[in-house]
């Protein structure tokens, strides 16, 4: 039997790659085309314009690159920096670790600022480094907006504030792989110089397209940056942009049509509504896992007058009583939640059991948190009832592996929250 497709649906809750909407799958189900015909450049022009909206930039220049997030990292670094350049980079989990490894292998002089896994970037250290750098030896700040391994979201506005406070000219390079199109992201307002994402995350496309957006300052830096680059050289793209043909090499026609439809769906829902939906699904997930239930949704809910203290208490008692890997509320991620399991349980058993018994795909704990956490990805094309299916599955798996959970407890808590907060579907009003 095919493990993914039969019977019923696979419940894909890894934090990327994520579910692809049917409309996108259908849009991509087409023959190849001549990318030099007038049709593909015409479509590319609209894609380049529209993709800027998900970065919230008007001044940025986007590049749609046949690659993954890892290639997008390399594009950001090699186009803006020279070997030996000093950069400050925050290590808070597996993906920031991998980016730092790439930075070191590309021969940058990396000043690593490390935090415990579960914490956000240590911005006090950044401030002290910038304060001590009146000679401006630091050429770039590299930060992962949303660390997918631990479910930690860093505060990019705060980074910009610190850079401005010290009037420091370092480039601000941001990995938005598991944030862009799902979390609040404002490239222009936060003065981000290079932002990047991968198609398989919140855009809900297949893997294979890295989307990189460069500020005018980053484009300027690329004119003197000496890092060796060939495939990722922005210069080649810009040459073809000027000619109006757009592609220095063969794009995936199917992915371009997929991107067109993915963007249309996002704009139809409204980017702000997409972001709010991610917030809602993430809050529902957090409430289910937490023992120490935070009731802030009661305060913000338009239905608050209908809530009773009784309901609050019931949810608090009946949640699963597990810990969030993310150590402070200010870092909670709205795209992925890493759930810490008790020491007598191996979290990879939870992932294995979910897959074997319930056709549920959860994220493994990676590296330092392997065996200690499992991850629930709640990003991309996803709705409330899908999430409830996942939470029901996790509840059953927890019971399977010997964790004393009351079946229905977490799902009940999530239902109570979602029933109070889910808006009508805009297109059906
Ligand atoms: N950055 C983050 C935050 C990620 O979550 C990932 C992958 O999950 C990557 C970078 C690497 O992306 P890719 O696997 O597409 O190369």
Automatic annotation (TrEMBL):
A single Gene Ontology CC term: peroxisome
Short name of one Pfam family: Aminotran_5
Cited InterPro entries: Aminotrans_V_dom (IPR000192), Aminotrans_V_PyrdxlP_BS (IPR020578), PyrdxlP-dep_Trfase (IPR015424), PyrdxlP-dep_Trfase_major (IPR015421), PyrdxlP-dep_Trfase_small (IPR015422), SP_NH2Trfase/AEP_transaminase (IPR024169)
Keyword Acyltransferase: no
Sequence positions that bind substrate: 375
GO molecular function: alanine-glyoxylate transaminase activity; L-serine-pyruvate transaminase activity
Enzyme Commission number(s) of this protein: 2.6.1.44
Keywords: Aminotransferase, Pyridoxal phosphate, Transferase
Gene Ontology terms: biological process: glycine biosynthetic process, by transamination of glyoxylate
Alphabetical list of CDD domains matching this protein: AGAT_like
PTM sites of type N6-(pyridoxal phosphate)lysine: 201
Residue intervals of the Aminotransferase class V domain: 15-299
Family: Belongs to the class-V pyridoxal-phosphate-dependent aminotransferase family.
Name of this chain's protein: alanine--glyoxylate transaminase
Species of provenance: Camellia sinensis (Tea plant)
Lineage, highest ranks first: Eukaryota, Viridiplantae, Streptophyta, Embryophyta, Tracheophyta
